[in-house]
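discrete fold record:
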Amino acid sequence: MCMSYEVIMLEFEGKVAVVTGAARGIGRATSLTLAERGADITAIDLREEMAIQAAKEVEGLGRKALAVPMDVSSSKSVAEGFAKIMETFGRIDILVNCAGIDIPGKLVDMSEENWDKTMNVNLKSVFLCAKAVAPIMMEQKSGKIVSISSIAGKLGEDTQGAYCCSKAGVGMLTQVLALELAPYNITVNAVCPGKTETEMIRETAKRISKEQNVSLEEFEKMWLDAVPLHRYARPCEVAELIAFLSSNKSDYITGISVTIAGGSLLY
């Protein structure tokens, strides 16, 4: 966690949150942040053993947790998973779409298979999970949906074409869902992190430094020199923003994509 509190406000007590990609990075930090504040958590990940581990961490904070192995790009897997969640908890108050992949490469060289895989995991999954949870939240007349986009969805990056397009799609999907679900008191927002200290960004840094024939340390210094705050975001900092957008403090905010990038994208 970013910081410790002697008294943690349990603003999510009695709430049920579903987090995809919960096993690591922003998803893991979000699960723990929401659990710290009282939410019961469903930890979703493609790898069952990692979903179980994420759920155990939540239980260690004194909250109920359910591990659900799920292929978020499969409508069948999503339907089965959300049915299990409802069977266990009977309600869903918060959906956080954190699952994502990055397959680098120039668009002109990218295979159709890799394009489809990127779109399926990064964009189609948000559509499928939102579609699964919407009827539940509509019946409840309340709900919060927060999806992870990226500053790469706002500004194109060389060799990141499929990733950029998928994340731009998340932003537009967020806007449309916000309009459709507003009559049911459901808010829909996206978070657009910049360079965040996760396994995914570390792998990207290693790849680019190798391509440029410089050491990882040299490359990361050049990379972060372009960030006004000169550092990576911490996953827990992104999780704090997600928690705000999942809380009743943000009840009048919907349909936006909030940038959290240390000043990297100012316009």
